[in-house]
From TrEMBL:
Belongs to the aldo/keto reductase family. Residues 21-264 form the NADP-dependent oxidoreductase domain. The keyword Oxidoreductase applies. GO terms for molecular function: oxidoreductase activity, acting on the CH-OH group of donors, NAD or NADP as acceptor. Keywords: NADP, Oxidoreductase. It holds the Pfam family Aldo_ket_red. The active site is at residue 54. This is Diketogulonate reductase-like aldo/keto reductase.
Length: 279
């Protein structure tokens, strides 16, 4: 399953998704994101995760054009922002995302946040289903959806989400949500897997890293992957991008996995999806 950077998981509709990718949150649209994406692809990455909210879809698209890798070998994800919830609004926003990326299709499109008080995510999902049925998107999913949001969405849907991208790191292991997603064949994907660097001084993680002659970041990424969670660490530096992918030549023991699991505090760096309704 986890042989090298080309290793993939198979989503419930049969589409293959790389286990490891590059996230580009907060990267400037222009040279910063272009060089990061090119560095990632040239070092073997095939999955790039952006979003309309990030404001750098054009730079991602430009980088894709400049690398010598066929489009069909890449897995490109973007996300619908909160101001575009609703059926017609979603269809229009998707076309703008494709235009900015200058692509003919997306591999994965996600609803960025559920916005439960706005309560339009079910209408939004109907538009996602239409785009999926029209083969403009190879897989559709959600981001930051808790169990109650997923239950409500699935209840009236023709297509169950293939992916749920959520905050996930050793201080927020989300086991009940991950269990629900496993039961419904929804692949969990991690954002902020390194908790914005807040875990680098943890004694347990440092001890395990020293044991394997790896960095704490590499240990966390390996823990993600062995937990069955797709992960997309963000870095704009070529050396760090390469380092983050150097996680396929060691394996954490069952005891080491348990040690990391016990670090959970149910502690977020991002907002609680049940309360977040920013538009």
């Amino acid at each position: 399953m986890l042989k090298d950077l080309s290793s993939k998981t198979t989503l419930h509709n049969g589409v293959e998704m790389p286990w490891l990718g590059l996230g580009v949150y907060k990267m400037d649209d222009g040279d910063e994101v272009k060089e990061a994406v090119k560095a990632a692809i040239n070092s073997g990455y095939r999955s790039i995760d952006t979003a309309a909210f990030y404001g750098n879809e054009e730079g991602v698209g430009a980088a894709i054009k400049e690398v010598d890798v066929p489009r069909e070998e890449l897995f490109i994800t973007s996300k619908l922002w909160n101001t575009d919830h609703g059926y017609d609004e979603t269809l229009a926003a998707f076309e703008k995302t494709l235009e900015r990326l200058d692509l003919a299709y997306l591999d994965l499109y996600l609803i960025h946040w559920p916005l439960p008080k706005v309560d339009k995510y079910k209408a939004t999902w109907r538009a996602f289903e239409k785009l999926y049925q029209e083969k403009k998107i190879r897989a559709i999913g959600v981001s930051n959806f808790k169990e109650e949001h997923l239950k409500e969405l699935i209840r009236g849907s023709q297509v169950t989400p293939m992916v749920n991208q959520v905050e996930f790191h050793p201080h927020l292991s989300q086991e009940p949500l991950r269990s629900f997603c496993r039961d419904h064949n929804i692949q969990v994907e991690a954002w902020s897997p390194l908790k914005q660097g807040d875990l680098f001084d943890d004694d347990t993680l440092k001890e395990i890293a020293e044991r394997h002659n790896k960095t704490v970041a590499q240990v966390i990424i390996r823990w993600d992957l062995q937990s069955g969670v797709v992960t997309i660490p963000k870095s704009s530096k070529a050396a760090r991008i390469k380092e983050n992918s150097d996680v396929f030549d060691f394996e954490l023991s069952n005891e080491e996995m348990r040690m990391i699991n016990h670090l959970n505090k149910d502690e977020r760096v991002g907002p609680d999806p049940s309360l977040f309704n920013k538009q």
